[in-house]
Structures are given as structure tokens and as C-alpha cells.
Amino acid sequence: MRRSQFSADRRGWPFYALGAVFAAYVVFLYGPMVCIYLLSFQGPQGGLSFPMRGASLHWFEQLIQQGDTGDLMGALSRSIPLALIVMVLTVVISLAGGLAFRNRFPGSGVLFYLVIASLVAPGYVLSIGIGLMFQLLGWETSWYTSALGAQLSWTLPFGLLIMFAIFGRFNRSYEEAARDLGASQLQTMVLVVIPILLPGMIAVALFGFTLSYDEFARTLQTTGSTNTVPIEIWSMTQNVTSPSIYALGTLTTALSFLVIGVSLGAIALIQRRRLGSVTGRS
Amino acid sequence: MASVLAEPEMASGGRGGVELAGIVKRYGDGTLPVDGINLKIGSGTYCCLLGPSGCGKTTMLRMIAGHETPSEGEILIDGTDVVGLSPRARGTAMMFQNYALFPHLSVRDNVAFTLRVRGINKKDRYREADRVIEQVQLTELSERLPSQLSGGQQQRVALARAIITRPRVLLHDEPLSALDEFLRLQMRSELRELQRQLGITFIHVTHTQLEAVAVADQVVVMDRGHVVQSDPARTVYAEPRSAYVARFMGGQNVLFGRLEAVEDGIATLRDEGGRGFRLRLGGSVRPVGQRLAFAVRRDHVRLARDSAAPPAFNAITGLVRAVEYQGTFVKVTIRPDGSGDKDDLFVAYVEEGDYFAAPIGIADRACAWWDLDEMHALAAD
After folding, report:
1. Which chain A residues touch B67 with a CB distance below 8 Å?
2. B235, B237, B241, B243 alpha-carbon torsion, rounded to 10°
3. Parallel, antiparallel, or unpaired: how do β-strands B46-50 and B218-223 relate?
């Protein structure tokens, strides 16, 4: 019998070389984050760098008590609603776009490239442009108008591209079957298309939420007089010199993980319900 | 039982006679997948649309189902033109090639779907669905999702989901192509049995000749958007109208020859290799010198080692190219003397016992011959 060159007991040097690259990647990705998480639990006497002087939640308290550390709670009270609005709009609009782009229509190619172009456009420049436009029109920039628009220019192309991938695997005969059985267009959409596409739509929602929640460049010049979280963090790094800034990092990361966890959990639940084990049922 | 299924449009009393008049389907790029079809399918008939891929059979089916609109022509079901009507208003139901079962719904909810969209309450629609599920013997599996079923079970769910609509015409798009050979034969006879029980019209698209002749009352052979023959299964198999049908159905050897003389309705022909053939022309009059196609069934020829002089008429001699044992018979393929690479090979099906009494091997010379009554003339393609 011929032994595979990839068999477990004889690995060539590329395996170790690539393994080393991956290990370095993991260290560079997670090393700094772990440092920040650790330092956020610095004791009250501790500073911005190691060593740790005891462990406490002191800097988290400092953070939540609005004051010299900046208005984090205020920023969260804007960032989370903003991310939720962006999420809903991204899901709805990219679902509609995905449905529309299943057929070629006049100008569909041009429209597609226009959408993709806003992915390539430098976010900061776009942000200045939107800020200037609002000024020109005499409108006031704020997180729920100009920043919302700026963020959608970023999340919609992503959402649409994911929807293309989802629709690529969606069999149109489901819709024909529904029609064959007497369903109206609305019934087909609500009872067949959306339930089948739901895992993909949750993925788009997750993207929409996290892209908005983390968005900096496009928001900087469009958020107006009040800040979103990333901009608040950025302005804090300019003037806060305490481990509060680390506590903030830990807190926001935890929130991101929570959102991702909930979304993936929901997708897994749907998949399990669909592909549930045969033995488990009668 | 007073059923929730009593539908006003079903009250017409028809049983699903389908008539196609001058149907043309033209695509935007100018192609004509269906090019002028006239066809009558009697009510309560099991009809197979048969042809190679791209012949227009699926497009035809989808137009009858109401999932595509003909560019020209009328589709009559029980005398009413249904072009433009919804599938439910037509009284048709379609079984999709991949079944298109809704993956997020249980078997029961899949079957009850049509009642759900009609606004029938859960209790009534489940009672009706359970009754139909019982009919296809899936009662134990009614809580399962489609992904938890085998291919054959999925097909039964699709059948139940279609027949709960009480269609007059049930349309099947290659219903057996996703199944393995064993299940295919089983489902084939189940389909035939179901059609007999329901007494409605079945229209079944397939590219498999034996499937078509096995189940269908009426076999419609299609080629490049046209119907080339529409006849009972036995007629299509035994008396193909043209060389195309004869070749496509298999079971026939197609031969060509120029007409030399006609005497008492018996024509004498000669092919390029100088072989003579005699066949009954029946009523048709053909000019002497015309090139005619004719066919002889593979299982109606006799075969022997080529020794003495072959018969003067209706005989082919050549080298045996292949021998395939088929169980009840042996398929012997002969390359006729003087034939080129592009010419048809001649095939004889020899009854098993006869073959092994005097076996003929590969590279042996063989002679096949037959009676003039075994031959019939074919129309030009």
C-alpha cells in the first residue's frame, strides 16, 4: 500500500514552517489583547504597564462613573442603538438587493460596481465628504443621521456580497413549489424564502452590528457633537492616562464576543433543528 | 368525509385531459426550446415526455404546470385555456426534480402547506395532511424534517404534498433520476399504481426509454422542440416512426438502402455495400431510387457463425465486435462488412439458451438474418 506523503508520522519542513507562521500570527493577534485584559484588572495603585500591583475592579468603577475618564455610558447609549439600526437596515436592504440581483436587469452591472466602489473608497475621506455635504445643506451632523448613512455605505456592500453567496446556494424551485401549492408572493416570502435564508440573514445581521459598532473612519467626521464608542475610546487615548482605558477595552471586547456568541448560537440552533439527529425523534 | 379540500374550481368534473395547440416557447436570445407542439393527452392517461436533454420536454412540462408562459399557442385542460392561470386554478400540481421539500418544515407541515396558505386552521389541515401521509405510508415519519428522510421517502412526501391539492393533472419532472437503481424500479411501479388509484392524468418527463415504456400509456418522443412520435408505449418501441425514434428508443437496428423495385407491395432495396433487403411498404408509394430508412428489431434476428453463403436478402455479415451477457439474452454487436467508422453497428439480441448452444466469440465472423415481416420502413428524419 502506498503511504500518503501527508501522513501523520512523516511531515516535511513546510508543515513546521507554516506552523511557525501560524503560531506567530496567533501570538501577535492575541498577545496584545491578553495584555490589555490583564492590565484592566490592575490594582488601584497600578499604572499603565506591567507589573500588576494587585488585582481589582477599580478601573472599571472609574470608567462607569462618568467624569474625568469621559462619557463612556453616553457613547454606549448611542453606539448600541446605532448598531441595531444599522443591523436591521443592512439585513432588510441587502435581502431586497439579493432578491433583485438574482435576475439581470438593465444597469445591474453598473449598480453592482457602484455598490462595491463604496467598499474601496477611503472611509475617512468619505466621512469628511458627508460632513461637508451636511454643512453645505445646513443640516446638523449627528449619530442617527449622517453617521448612520456613512456606516450604511460600509455595511451594505458587505451585506449584499454575503447575500449573493447565500442566494447562490438557494434553489429557486422552493419558490416555484410554494407557488404551485397556491402560496401568494407574500406567503412565499414569509413562509418559505425567509425561513430558509434565516441562518444567512443572521450572519448578515452580525456583520452589520459589529461593523457599525467598531466603525471609526467613516464616523469620525459624521457623528456630530456626541461620540460613538470607538471615537470616545480614541479621544480617551488622547487624554486619559490610567488603566481605565484598558478596562474599556476589556468591556467592549466582552460585548463584541457576546454579540458574536449569541448570533452563532442562533445559527447553530437553527441548523440543529433542521439537521437534528434521526434517532432523537420518533 | 366532508373534506376541507372541496374547491370550487374542481367542480368542473373534468379528469385532466390536456391539449396543446401550436405551443411555441421563444427565449430572449432567439432560441426555441419548444417549436410548435400539438399534442393531445387523454384524461386519466399516464403520459411520458421522452427525449434527450435539451429537447424541450422540461420546458413543455413547466408550461403545462404554469411555471413558464408559452410565447404562442394554447394549453387546454378539460377544454379550458389555462394560459395565464395560476397552478392552483389550473388544477395541476408539479413534482420537482429535487422534490423541493421545504427544509425547515416537518413532513406534516410540508404536506399541509397548501392548506395553510389557504387559511385553513391547524386542526383541520393536520387531519387532512395525516390522511394523505397515511396514503403514502409515511405516518411514522410525519414529525421528521426532509433532511432526515431517504431519497425514496422524500419523494413520497413530495407526492403527498402534490396530491393533497387534488390535482387533475400531476406533473413529474424526472421524478426517478435522483434515486438509485433499486429504488427507481420500486418507485416506478408505485407511481404507476398511484396513477391508477387516483385516476388522474400523469405527465412524466424522463430521458430514460425503458422507464417511459414501462409506466406510460402514451409515450411522446421529442427532439429539438418538436414531437416526433406520440403513440402507445408498445407502438413507439416496436414501430418507431422515424430513424431518430428508432435509434433513440434502442432495441432496433436502423438500416438504409435505395429502392430498386416494388412488387405486390414488397419493396426491394440495396445498400451501398450491395446487400439486398426486402420489406413490406404497405400503402405508401415511394419513387424508385429513393434512399429509405428501415428498421429491424434486435431481438427478432437470427444469428449464426458465418459459414455458407448468406441468404440473398435481409442478411448482414460481419465481424463480432462485442458480446455482452444480459441475463435473459446475449447482446452481440457486429460491425457489418464494408461499414465505415460512422455507420451504425448491428446488434442482435440472442436468447440465452440459443447463444450458449452455439456461442459466437469476439472477432468471429457472424451472419444475422431475418424475415421480411420483421422489418418496417421509417420516415425520413
Report:
1. 176, 179-180
2. -170
3. parallel
Question: B50 - beta bridge partners?
Answer: B206, B221
Give residue-wise pLDDT tens across range B139-168.
999 999 999 898 889 999 999 999 999 999
Cα atoms in the Cβ-side hemisphere of radius 13 Å centred on A79: 25
Q: What is the CATH number of domain B8-238?
A: 3.40.50.300
Domain ranges for chain A, please list them.
13-59, 70-239
Q: Length of chain B in residues, anyone? A: 381
- Its CATH class, for the domain covering A70-239, is mainly alpha
C-alpha distances (whole Å) from A186 to each of A112, B68, B112, B119 are 26, 20, 18, 14
Give the pairing type, strands B226-232 and B218-223. Answer: antiparallel
Which of A180, A190, A272, A273 is the best residue to mutate to test the B interface, defined by the most B CB atoms within 10 Å of its own CB?
A180
How far apart, in Å, are the Cα atoms of A31 and each of A25, A35, A214, A251, B285? 10, 6, 20, 17, 94
Comparing CB atoms, the residue among A174, A176, A180 nearest residue B102 is A174
Domain B252-378: give its CATH architecture.
Beta Barrel (2.40)
Per residue in A163-217, pLDDT (tens digit) is 999 998 888 899 999 999 999 999 999 999 999 999 889 889 988 998 898 888 8
